[in-house]
Amino acid sequence: MRTVLSVTSECVPLIKTGGLADVAGALPAGLAQTGWQMRTLLPAYPGLIEKAAAKKKVFAFKDLMGGPAGVMAGQAGGVDVLLLDAPHLYDRPGGPYGNPTDFPDNPVRFAALSYAAAQIARDGLSDGWTPQVLHAHDWQAGLAPTYLKLGGDHDVATVMTVHNIAFQGLAPAAMLGAMQLPISEFTSEGLEYWGQISTLKAGLVDADAITTVSPTYAAELMRPEFGMGLDGLIAHRAADLSGILNGIDMDVWNPETDQEITAYSATSLKGKAKNRKALMAEFGLSKIDGPLAIVVSRLTSQKGMDLIADTADQFVAMGGGLAILGSGDPAIEDQMRMLARNHPGRIGLRIGYDEALSHRMFGGGDVVLVPSRFEPCGLTQLYGLRYGTVPVVAATGGLADSVINANVMAQTSNAATGFQFHPVDSLAFGHCLRNVTDQFGDKSGWTRLQKRGMKQQLGWEASSAAYAALYERLLA
User: Fold this and answer.
1) Residue 16 assigned ligand-binding role
2) Which residues bind ADP-alpha-D-glucose (predicted)?
3) Which SS3 state, helix, strand or coil, does residue 129 take?
4) For 175, 177, 203, 264, which has the most beta carbons within 10 A of its beta carbon?
């Protein structure tokens, strides 16, 4: 059995703020089918040791960046987890990153996570388990390859996965000492970024291989408009870069067994009409003859929510309706409230997030709108495909890789699964929505489009095989 240590700040089912947690929680089971055993290291936030029944200490630190710490082994949802129990760093109320704003010592908190990962990779655990590969996720684990390198010669391969390059783990140079980093690493060839520490850059420099969560996003990251200042470094390491598209949990997201909705399948969509009616009632909507569009998203400009505000009036005029679930930028939240006030019965809004409601929305929606300005992978469009809720996406990142645009040739060859638009602006989005509304009027063609999307391979099988192949190449 091959072994890999995954290092992450969040992991389903223990703790989640975004898609990173879904990936970290799903990858171990997929890899197990390829002969790889993954154990996942994350901080022991309050309550996690109890949730994972992590009673066995398998590593100890007398002093880990300000206090004693231990690594506790447990299991949650089929994931073998290693919880870094360091109360001085993680035993505090609020989310994993702050309450309500970022904790000022976050650079040290996640440097400690990376340092612990490097020590485990080098020394192994007291139960005899030693990883052959160290797989770091995002800036929170970016220093793990660096600490491993600083410890001297080793035979552990390292992988750095970028889930979203917009978050780079920046810290003042004055924190080098607190993060136990030597001044020799603070160079333009190392972890220095415009006079600051960048933990993501450290991982990009020191890991043996770099991955990101879709092939198109991998290509985009080498361009200034997407690379967030790290495009030159990533282009320099292009030979070590690969894009591996994320999957989804096909059991959790399954319209045939979802307890929140009336069941339906790709062979019989009969239940979807009942779900649509129930969703409209839940959002106070009525008299929607065109497509019922759902939005399940952070309400930010990166997610293109301003484009929805710009085009909502014309979409409603075409007969469409909107059900919106999300929170984010206060100004965009206010825009959404105004839309709902201006279009009672046609636009419904819920500020916040509700996992069960999101399932009901995918079960009842006709289309799901994902107009992101950039999107490393995206899971929302995959949920849409799975539920026959046709994705309407910007042609960027993983959205472009996972949705086959309903252009003339794709329609003629029965290949289309959704709609793409480009450039990412209100004019192109509005034109795309007009096309969506027109095609929605062809009920038999629309049903074929839905069923085609529902039959796509959206699970982790292909992605896990790609990660396993990468690990094998690194060891070879």
Assistant:
1) yes
2) 16
3) coil
4) 203
